[in-house]
Write a structure and sequence with these properties.
It comes from Reticulomyxa filosa. It is a multi-pass membrane protein. InterPro entries: Ion_trans_dom, VGCC_Ca_Na. Keywords: Membrane, Signal, Transmembrane, Transmembrane helix. By secondary structure, the chain is mostly helical. It has a domain at 2-117: Orthogonal Bundle (Helix Hairpins), CATH 1.10.287. It has 8 helices and 2 strands. A two-stranded antiparallel sheet has the order 1-2. Helix 1 (2-18) crosses helix 3 and helix 1 (2-18) packs antiparallel against helix 5 (103-137). The chain is elongated and about 95 Å long. The N and C termini lie far apart (103 Å). Mean pLDDT is 76; it is low at 202-210.
């Protein structure tokens, strides 16, 4: 409601400032300065031209709100502002930068009606979303501290441990421990063991019958 009220105020102000002033003679190359008439509109028609309005104008509150909506979307607002900077009087042809201070109206509207109020609208929507989420979780009647504690517990549950890589020193030690151990054979020791077995004679194998 606040957003619509502010836009309505700017719409009424735009009708007072720019109502009936966005007209121009078509074609624009037509020279009607010597044609009979009390103003440029009559001279344009007398010279065979057409006195037409701009696609976006502020002649009434409905057209004004439509033009402000286009400005609020930040799409095509520059052309509307430039037309407003060229206006002179009702039934008079526009002149380039004849009313360049009219650009302040559009700059103020975009700052207040577009950025600030849209941000306010998003904040209200986000606040209602948080309230609805609290009601779904069953914590709508709790205090802020209790809600913060519950949200903290939920965040702790969602947190998963993260595996950190081992430092290079520990990684090298682990790789050394996993390597198979080598057995070193001593040729002299093997020969002495063989001679002892030959001196003792053949080995006797005992079989036990169960």
């Amino acid at each position: 409601m606040v957003l619509l009220l502010v836009w309505l105020i700017f719409g009424i102000l735009a009708v007072e400032l720019f109502g009936g002033k966005f007209y121009s003679c078509t074609p624009s190359t037509l020279d009607f300065s010597m044609a009979p008439g009390r103003n440029d509109a009559e001279k344009c028609v007398a010279a065979g031209g057409a006195w037409t309005n701009a696609p976006e104008s502020f002649d009434n509150i409905f057209l004004s709100m439509r033009s402000l909506f286009i400005c609020g979307t930040l799409n095509g607002w520059v052309s509307i502002m430039l037309n407003a900077c060229d206006v002179t009087e009702v039934d008079q042809s526009p002149k380039r930068n004849a009313s360049e201070y009219n650009a302040l109206f559009f700059l103020v509207f975009i700052m207040i009606g577009s950025f600030f109020l849209v941000s306010l609208l998003l904040a209200v929507i986000f606040d209602n979303f948080i309230k609805l989420q609290d009601e779904v979780l069953g914590i709508g009647m709790l205090t802020d501290q209790q809600k913060a504690w519950i949200h903290l517990q939920l965040n702790i549950i969602r947190i998963k441990p993260r595996l950190l890589p081992l430092p290079p020193s520990l990684r090298q030690m682990k790789s050394k421990n996993n390597q198979p151990k080598r057995i070193t054979f001593i040729p002299g020791l093997f020969n002495r063991t063989k001679r002892r077995r030959e001196d003792k004679g053949p080995l006797t194998t005992l079989f036990f019958k169960m």
